[in-house]
Design a protein that fits this description.
With about 475 residues, the protein is α/β, with parallel strands linked by helices. It is about 30% helix and about 25% strand. The chain is built from 13 helices and 24 strands. Helix 7 links the parallel strand 9 and strand 10. Helix 1 packs parallel to helix 9. Bound molecules: flavin-adenine dinucleotide and nicotinamide-adenine-dinucleotide. The site of nicotinamide-adenine-dinucleotide has 26 residues, from helix 7, strand 12 and strand 20.
Length: about 475
């Protein structure tokens, strides 16, 4: 290996953003290197999306056996179930390893030079790679920054022994007896629910007036009901103050303090773009708050330097990172492309799941645009398949333009709502109208029929309004 190797493209970070842009650039004949300090696959594959969903899935399977109302009604009985969390984690690690090997294989077959080490930006064309076995330097015509994000740490609850990030929680060998979850957002509720299903006494401490403040109230209501059913103690408008011996001191908005039992605490109060410690200041990039500012083609303020994924700020989601990566590869291949997606789907793997695509009624300024919308809603209670699977709490909502019926948004909370995200995104992205959707035959009996019911409700309202 020479001291300085020259490439068309050097990518910093081998997560969903970094490995995708590298693969697409290599496919188009560009010589490409990826600098990754840890494992390819990044946060999503190694410590995020995949392992968290594996644990959520296992916890749900266990809980269905432990709470036998539904299977009992079907005439099925089993002995008292037990869970060996260490074995669950080994299974989860196996799923992760298989997928990570898959990504590594793709990079290898794509002829991408993966350099293991810490990237330090020297200038817009040069990156130093510091590895255990020495340093080397790579240079390129184009630099793509994809270093991702890191969990926000609270100064009064620094990560350590009993205070875990999501990564730490996904590695515990035993189910915590009393688990305090600070932050009732995506991670807090997804993993808090999983731990409650595995047997932890879970308390969620959320600073805002309600959990999942990023989603509208109607979507969160069934999730809040289920948290109560699962015995999860939800403290809203409350913040963590300090960790005591076996408890967490919390304070509500009126200044009243109380204690929450906690042998372990997980802090999930958001993630911050990973812009520090890599010499980025040398580039003098324009910033957008804590994130690297980019234009519609993911170009930064410095010529030849692009940024994609979590480092560019919200929404910090893997599928948005993939889409930015595809876009940048097209731009580097000489195509004129800008971000023109109408919606980035958001899915929360709570119980029940939430899916939100495009415009929600809450996005509209009351009194100005609301009258231009038609909203159709249907409950899963009327759906045959929901009754069979024993999960009826929830609804699907369709938001459309009243004048031409164009579908602007679809939201759902209910059984397997994550799987509705594809149809919802297609409807919005393809500019479908309510009539297009009504003319589509949906297989019976499926959960997706509730989507069709919501469309029918919207059409009924639209007709009655126009009469
Ligand atoms: P990352 O995946 O963070 O990858 C960045 C990579 O860059 C890392 O591998 C890092 O080691 C490397 N790196 C950083 N700095 C340097 C440097 N100086 N030198 C060398 N290498 C460097 N999103 C979803 O869409 N769906 C989900 O279900 C979901 N679940 C999640 C669950 C959890 C618990 C967490 C924490 C996140 C979850 N996310 C989910 C978010 C998702 O993981 C991120 O949006 C996604 O990983 C962003 O991809 P990225 O490539 O921008 O960054
Ligand atoms: P989040 O932004 O989803 O939730 C953080 C929550 O913590 C918010 O509700 C916020 O009000 C609350 N909070 C902030 N400071 C607090 C404090 N001091 N005390 C109590 N509560 C406080 O962040 P997250 O759950 O850490 O997840 C990080 C990001 O990872 C998400 O925003 C998302 O982009 C991504 N993620 C996505 C998925 C998914 O797509 N299913 C799953 C997990 C994570």
């Amino acid at each position: 290996m020479s001291a300085t190797d020259q490439f068309d493209v050097v990518v910093v970070g081998g997560g969903p953003a970094g490995y995708t842009v590298a693969l697409r650039c290599a496919e188009r004949g560009m010589s490409t290197a990826v600098v990754e300090r840890d494992a390819v696959g990044g946060t999503c594959l190694n410590v995020g999306c995949i392992p968290s969903k594996a644990v959520i899935h296992a916890a749900d399977k266990f809980h269905r056996l432990a709470e036998p109302t539904h299977i009992g009604a079907m005439g099925i009985s089993v002995g008292p179930p037990s869970v060996d969390l260490a074995a669950t984690m080994r299974w989860k690690d196996g799923v992760v390893a298989e997928l990570r090997d898959g990504v590594a294989g793709l990079l290898d077959r794509g002829g991408i030079d993966v350099r293991r080490g810490d990237a330090e930006i020297i200038d817009a064309r040069t990156v130093r790679v510091a590895a255990a076995d020495g340093n080397d330097t790579v240079s390129a015509r184009h630099l793509v920054l994809a270093p991702g994000s890191r969990p926000v740490e609270l100064s009064n609850l620094p990560f350590g022994d009993r205070v875990l990030s999501s990564t730490g929680l996904l590695e515990v060998g035993e189910v915590p007896i009393d688990l305090a979850v600070v932050g009732g957002g995506y991670i807090g509720l997804e993993l808090g629910t999983a731990m409650a299903k595995l047997g932890s006494n879970v308390t969620v401490v959320e600073a805002e007036d309600r959990v999942l403040p990023a989603f509208d109230t109607a979507l969160v209501r069934p999730v809040a009901r289920r948290l109560t059913d699962l015995g999860i103690d939800v403290r809203t408008a409350t913040r963590a103050v300090e960790l005591g011996d076996g408890n967490l001191v919390v304070e509500d908005r009126d200044g009243a303090r109380s204690e929450v039992s906690a042998d372990q605490v997980v802090v999930a109060v958001g993630r911050r773009p990973a812009t520090d410690g890599m010499g980025l200041a040398r580039l003098g990039l324009d910033m957008d708050g804590a994130a690297i500012a980019v234009d519609g083609s993911c170009r930064t303020s410095v010529h030849g330097v692009f940024a994609i994924g979590d480092v560019t700020g919200e929404p910090m989601l893997a599928h948005r990172a993939y889409a930015q990566a595809e876009l940048v590869a097209d731009v580097l291949a000489g195509e004129e492309r800008t971000w023109d997606h109408l919606a980035v789907p958001a899915v929360c793997f709570t119980d029940p799941e939430i899916c939100a695509v495009g415009m929600s009624p809450d996005d509209v300024d009351e009194g100005t645009r609301r009258d231009r919308l038609v909203i159709g809603q249907a409950s899963y209670r009327a759906n045959g398949r929901s009754k069979i699977v024993g999960a009826e709490d929830g609804m699907v909502r369709v938001v459309a333009d009243r004048t031409n019926g164009a579908v602007l948004g679809v939201q759902a909370v209910g059984p397997e709502a994550s799987e509705l995200a594809a149809a919802a995104s297609l409807a919005v992205e393809l500019g479908s109208t309510l009539d297009d959707l009504a003319a589509t035959i949906i297989a019976h009996p499926t959960l997706a029929e509730t989507f069709a019911d919501a469309v029918a409700a919207a059409i009924g309202r639209r007709d009655s309004a126009s009469r």
